[in-house]
From TrEMBL:
Residue ranges occupied by any Prenyltransferase alpha-alpha toroid domain in the UniProt entry: 68-178
Keyword flag Transmembrane helix: yes
InterPro entries attached to this UniProt entry: Prenyltrans, Terpenoid_cyclase/PrenylTrfase
Protein name: Prenyltransferase alpha-alpha toroid domain-containing protein
Region entry Disordered, spans: 367-388
Pfam families, per database record: Prenyltrans
Transmembrane segments: 396-414
Compositionally biased residues, Polar residues: 370-380
Species this protein is from: Streptomyces flaveus
Signal peptide: 1-35
């Protein structure tokens, strides 16, 4: 994919709009030949694989939601069902990359099988936590390294312009696989952290301290809460599952300078998030037409980021808001939403089995094959050889307009799956 800017379209990232409407996500994230194709019929009316979490169409987010669900179960000491782990492993291509959803895994991936960094990085984190075969995770990490951009970062699709969200989730994957991102140098001697630093909004500009998703068409960095939550974790070298960081917060104001570090960028980003949620206790949607609506997913992500940055106290109001207001959203959005809330609870030391009176662990378990209350690290994870789930073949790529989703969470751990609009 070229980094050249085109019309305001983007690929469904984790099957929903992760990009704020203010972002100029103009990079066409699919090859031109594929951009002209129409999506295949939805598989939602057909029987879904028994090992899959969630009942919504998995075409665009199957691997993402499965990875988060398994990672969340592991985090709370639930041993995931073998069928669920097998399903995830079976989505890997021989290249090591993961496609969002392969309906027929008996058919080998080819040049038309669309794979992406986000699905692959999420799968690495889940499978590493579960003790997967090194051949599986090692191949995935090797592929991620092979598609690193010259600036040190990653875009959603191979060759796409680097963005804060994709770069951060890949950093998390590398860390989970004991592969130091600092050692992942490009020919231009750039690391993934260098790419993130270029996306940190200067203090003197509007939204200073935040991360931008990508520079806009004029090269300006526009503050994006979604990208900021991701960027804080990435800059800290932490993953989707994290615990509260050192409560020694450092500077209480945005800092910049010649010796600007990734830790400075993380501190600045956390300050931005703390200020953004201070008034209402939640983040608002940045999507056009939904600016006054709460963004549950991004709020949960902000809680995780604040805790990771040692600002758990600043996350208290948002956590309380989620405990009171997230039930309907999670029920509608599915397994990844429950996982997001579990990650927020875990990061702040909150009981996920009594989250505002809701047992998140039970609710998550109800969306997929039953796990068991055993030590999650005892979970046996096979290599790619597995039973094949039967389903119809579907296209795994969908290009949509920036205004795809209205009024639902668009956090970088996005859990909305099935909001679709025609192509622009």
């Amino acid at each position: 994919m070229s980094s050249e800017r085109h019309s305001p379209i983007m690929i469904v990232r984790r099957s929903a709009a992760v990009l704020a409407a203010t972002a100029v996500i103009g990079a066409a994230c699919a090859p031109v030949a594929l951009a002209a194709e129409s999506p295949s019929p939805s598989p939602s009316s057909k029987a879904l694989p028994s090992g899959l979490f969630g009942s919504a169409d998995p075409t665009y987010d199957g691997v993402w939601r499965q990875s988060l669900a398994l990672l969340a179960q592991h985090t709370v000491g639930v041993k995931p069902a073998k069928s669920a782990v097998d399903w995830l492993v079976g989505q890997q291509c021989e290249s090591g990359a993961f496609a969002p959803y392969r309906a027929d895994v008996s058919v080998k991936c080819d040049a038309k099988t669309m794979v992406d960094t986000n699905s692959t990085a999420a799968a690495v984190q889940a499978l590493e936590a579960l003790g997967a075969d090194d051949a599986v995770t090692g191949a995935a990490v090797k592929w991620l390294k092979s598609v690193q951009n010259a600036d040190g970062g990653w875009g959603y699709a191979p060759g796409g312009a680097s963005d804060a969200n994709s770069t951060s989730v890949v950093i998390s994957a590398l860390e989970s696989a004991d592969s130091d991102p600092e050692d992942q140098l490009t020919n231009e001697e750039k690391t993934p952290y260098d790419a993130l630093l270029t996306l940190s909004v200067p203090c003197e500009e509007d939204g200073g301290g935040a991360f931008a998703f990508q520079p806009d068409k004029k090269g300006k960095l526009v503050a994006n809460a979604d990208a900021t939550a991701a960027g804080v974790l990435g800059a800290l070298g932490k993953g989707l599952v994290t615990e509260a960081g050192d409560t020694t917060k450092g500077s209480e104001k945005c800092v910049r300078g010649d010796s600007f570090t990734r830790e400075n960028a993380a501190t600045n980003g956390a300050l931005y998030l703390a200020d953004a949620i201070a008034k209402d206790g939640y983040l608002k949607s940045a999507l056009a037409g939904a600016e006054d609506q709460p963004d549950h997913g991004n709020t949960a992500d902000a809680v995780v980021a604040l805790a990771a940055a040692g600002r758990t106290a600043d996350a208290t109001k948002a956590l309380a808001w989620l405990e009171k207001n997230s039930r309907a959203w999670a029920a509608q959005s599915g397994p990844a939403a429950y996982a997001q809330l579990i990650f927020a609870a875990h990061a702040t030391g909150t009981d996920p089995r009594d989250f505002g009176g809701v047992d998140l662990v039970k609710q998550l378990g109800a969306t997929g094959p039953a796990g068991s209350n055993a030590t999650a690290t005892d979970t046996a994870v096979p290599s790619k050889e597995k039973d094949q789930d039967e389903d119809s073949g579907v296209s795994v790529w969908w290009i949509v307009g920036v205004g795809l989703v209205g009024g639902i969470g668009v956090g970088f751990l996005i859990s909305s799956r099935n909001k679709k609009q025609p192509q622009p």
